[in-house]
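Suppose you are handed only these lines of text.
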Amino acid sequence: MDRKYWETIAPKYETEIFDVLQNDVSGSIVAAIESMASPEKTIIDIGCAVGKWMPVLAPKFKMVIAADISAKNLQIAKEKYTDFDNIEYHRMDMSADDLSVIPCDAAICINAILTHSLEKRINFFQSLSLCLNAGGELVLVVPSLESKLYTNIIAGRWNVDDAENDKLPEPKKAIDLFKNIKQGVTDIDDVPTKHYLKEELELLLGLEGFDVQAIKKINYDWKTEFHKPPKWLKEPYPWDWMCTAKKK
Ligand SMILES: C[S@@+](CC[C@H](N)C(=O)[O-])C[C@H]1O[C@@H](n2cnc3c(N)ncnc32)[C@H](O)[C@@H]1O
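From them, the structure of the protein bound to S-adenosylmethionine can be written out as follows.
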């Protein structure tokens, strides 16, 4: 999942990429953003893609920096949200070794730290801290490894979507899958994607100088995981982790 991947996805972003804002029916992420919002504060949307969060952020903050590694994504966002005059679009690579950024008072980073590369993730987490002033607040959303495993267990036990007939991987792919899962990296639509444990998230943010305030589930419908979820399958629903944290 490098820059090239995201540039290629950009023109078909709406059909290919899961929409967190639409699917968070609880409104918990919007509520977390509202609780840190102020017309005196600046906010950065890290990995903003085509800018879905702009209509939530722009009316509530003094200034929004929409940041993404993909120039095409940023261009799509820029053309879409011409009504707002307080958004700046910045192309930046949060995994770069030498990131220079003007720190903001608040940040959101929603399903953007997905790369299978440990080195790139280490840099990305360090950059999160660089993006914020001391005392600045962060809303971070990432895929949950617990949820992914729970989904796999349900699929295997009740043969959901004919899981028994899933094709076995070729030997080379099987070795990659094995190495990846040890690091919490597991495929979404054949793309190796980092998933996180709750405890891991707490540790990673603590190491970068954040006080973790809360980690909670963002629940989604079972239809986001299965074509045909069993009718009896209810709670717990599949989830991402949302973490709210403050830079010390
Ligand atoms: C799944 S999309 C999330 C989009 C958006 N946050 C949302 O909730 O609608 C992930 C985004 O992260 C961006 N991204 C991935 N790696 C990045 C990096 N190293 N630096 C900046 N942006 C990155 C991608 O270009 C992509 O637009």
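What can we learn from it? Strands lie at 42-46, 63-68, 87-91, 104-110, 132-143, 185-188, 191-194, 210-219, 239-247. The chain has a mean pLDDT of 96.
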